[in-house]
Design brief:
This protein is an all-alpha fold and 275 residues long. It has helices at 13-19, 51-54, 87-94, 98-120, 140-144, 151-165, 172-177, 181-195, 205-212, 233-242, 265-274. The chain is flat, with a radius of gyration of 30 Å.
């Protein structure tokens, strides 16, 4: 034939895998046929479990879900105002919603961290190819993920933002934990939440009479019949990271105080029977 010195040799599966030869592409050197298939990672809420999703790059590290430790109690409004807060300051801070408060903290931290990192001689902003900054302040995302590796920088930021702006005293036990912007935000938010006045849920007799007069009455207590997952919270969250919330007959139950009546056939049927 044309290429007489070339002899076809069958290779076993292990050799084929090692050289990257598959039945569809004879040689690893030339491009194999591209098959444009459905990519499960591109779908909206789907977590892809395809080959590409499980291939680990050198940058990837396994991370555990951020689950509260045993015995953690979420901060509740109990009206516990810090000593350094006067009435006007308390009113101005407690009037903010949680979102507004977080925005205010992040905004302040952006300015302070930017100024202090500039003082230390490193740049957090995007630069153009000539080294000029493209923006006046670093991105919010950079600030929100910022970790204080330098102790002096951390102390300066804490004294300016937490101690001066929000007038909170930091104990040494807290100081060990305040090593990232995320923790600083949580710290301030927890103190502000505790300083808020607790809401009073009183149902007066007049309200009870009005509610009792309604035709359609609520059926209460059914959520106690919902299945309970008794596993460790960390295990539950880890499972949620790898599969969907609605996947194997699991349903997410969100308690609500207002019934969704639009398109709710049960509700409409009950209304019709009552009238």
């Amino acid at each position: 034939g044309i290429n007489a010195e070339y002899k076809y040799k069958e290779v076993n599966r292990w050799q084929r895998q090692a050289t990257g030869v598959s039945p569809s592409n004879g040689l690893p050197g030339r491009m194999g046929p591209r098959s444009y298939k459905f990519n499960p990672e591109g779908a909206l809420n789907t977590k892809g479990t395809s080959k590409t999703a499980w291939r680990w790059w050198y940058t990837q590290q396994p991370f555990l879900p951020n689950v509260a430790p045993e015995g953690y109690k979420a901060p509740k409004p109990i009206g516990l105002v810090p000593t350094a807060w006067d009435a006007s300051f308390t009113k101005s801070v407690c009037s903010l919603t949680d979102t507004e408060l977080k925005d205010r903290i992040v905004d302040r931290l952006t300015h302070v961290i930017f100024e202090e990192s500039q003082r230390d001689g490193y740049e957090l902003r995007k630069l153009d190819f000539e080294g000029r900054p493209l923006e006046s302040l670093p991105e919010t995302r950079i600030i929100e993920q910022f970790v204080f590796e330098e102790e002096t920088l951390r102390d300066r930021v804490l004294s300016q933002v937490v101690e001066t702006d929000f007038r909170l005293a930091i104990r040494s036990a807290d100081r060990e934990d305040l090593k990232s912007v995320e923790n600083i935000i949580l710290f301030i938010t927890a103190h502000v939440t505790a300083a808020r006045t607790p809401p009073s849920y009183e149902v007066t007799d007049a309200v009870r009479e009005v509610l009792a007069a309604q035709a359609v009455q609520p059926l209460l207590g059914f959520q106690h019949a919902l299945p309970k997952d008794n596993r460790n919270q960390l295990v539950i969250e880890w499972e949620r990271m790898h599969q969907l919330d609605w996947q194997f007959g699991k349903a997410v139950y969100t308690p609500r105080s207002k019934e969704v009546t639009y398109g709710n056939l049960e509700w409409l049927r009950a209304e019709r029977e009552a009238s």
